[in-house]
Amino acid sequence: MRFLNKVVFITGAARGIGKSFAAASAHEGAMVGIAASSLEGATAPAHAVSDNALAVHMEFHKQERLAQAGQLQCQNLGG
Fold this sequence. Notes:
Blueprint: E1 7-11, H1 16-27, E2 31-36, H2 39-49, E3 54-57, H3 63-77
Parallel strand pairs: 1-2, 2-3
Helix pairs in contact: 1-2
């Protein structure tokens, strides 16, 4: 497990390549944070990739929201 005890934070992971990367990272032992433009969009992929994955709503166009998403990730998964 190459990512055991590592934390990854993936933006745009609600579908496509981001979702595939999240699944692969979780499979390799990572604790995964999945960010999407809606919490609903992040929740289903988070549950699909790992029981420990974190779904995060992130407004990508607002700088303060990016910082809040990173803080949430650190509080819940470490980092």
